[in-house]
Specification:
- This protein has a domain of 119 residues.
- A two-stranded antiparallel ribbon has the order 1-2.
- The chain contains 5 helices and 2 strands, in the order ααββααα.
- The longest helix is centred in the last third of the chain and has 25 residues.
- It is flat.
- It is 53% helix and 7% strand.
- α2 runs antiparallel to α5 and α4 packs across α5.
- A hairpin with an 8-residue loop joins β1 and β2.
- The protein is mainly α and 182 residues long.
Length: 182
C-alpha cells in the first residue's frame, strides 16, 4: 500500500558537490575587489551571539542555586539549618513546584502537625520561624563577610537568576502560557 522511498547516496553526494561548486559563482558571493589577508596579520575577533532557551537558563539558575546551598550547607554551624531543594506538589494540586527550605522548618511544621493530630489544636509557629530566619540570616551574613567561596557562589546564583528573570520577562511579556523560544 505504502511505497517506501529510498534515496541513493550517490545522488545526494553529487547534488551537494554541484551546490558547493555553484555557490561561489553566484552574484552574492562575488565582489569587484578581491581582498587577501597577509598571513602575518592577526585575525580580528569574531563574535557570535546566540540565544539560549528559557529552560536552559532556568536549569543554569537552579544549578547555581544548588551550588550556593551546597557551599552554605558545608560551612554553616548547625545541620538543622542546612537547605535542600526538591520538587513538591502543594496541597490540592498535582503540579510540582521547586521548594528550597531548611531542615529545621520541616521539623517545626512536623511538630505542630503532630500536636494537631493529637487533638491539641494547631497554632502556626510564627515565633519559631521568625527566630529560625533571624539565626539563618545572621549566619549567612557572617559567611558572606568571611568566606570568598560563599560570596562567589552567591554572586553566581544572583547573576543567573537576574539573567533568567530578565529573559523570561522579555520573552513572555503579555503572554499567559507560551513564551517565545528565540
Amino acid at each position: 500500500m505504502f511505497r517506501r522511498r529510498t534515496f541513493d547516496s550517490n545522488v545526494i553526494a553529487s547534488t551537494c558537490a554541484l551546490l558547493l561548486l555553484a555557490l561561489p559563482l553566484s552574484g552574492e558571493c562575488q565582489s569587484d575587489t578581491v581582498q587577501t589577508q597577509k598571513p602575518s596579520e592577526p585575525i580580528e575577533e569574531i563574535v557570535v551571539r546566540g540565544h539560549k532557551f528559557l529552560i536552559n537558563l532556568q536549569h543554569e539558575m537552579k544549578e547555581a542555586e544548588e551550588a550556593l546551598y551546597g557551599v552554605y550547607n558545608s560551612l554553616n554551624a548547625d545541620d538543622d539549618y542546612d537547605i535542600y531543594c526538591y520538587e513538591e506538589a502543594p496541597t490540592g494540586s498535582k503540579i510540582k513546584q521547586r521548594v528550597c527550605r531548611p531542615q529545621k522548618l520541616g521539623k517545626i511544621l512536623a511538630e505542630q502537625t503532630q500536636l494537631m493530630m493529637l487533638g491539641q489544636g494547631y497554632a502556626f509557629p510564627a515565633d519559631e520561624i521568625k527566630k529560625m530566619n533571624e539565626a539563618m540570616f545572621a549566619e549567612m551574613t557572617e559567611l558572606a563577610s568571611n568566606n570568598p567561596e560563599y560570596v562567589k557562589a552567591l554572586r553566581e546564583f544572583y547573576s543567573k537568576k537576574q539573567t533568567w528573570e530578565s529573559e523570561h520577562k522579555r520573552r513572555c511579556e503579555g503572554r499567559l502560557i507560551l513564551c517565545r523560544r528565540e
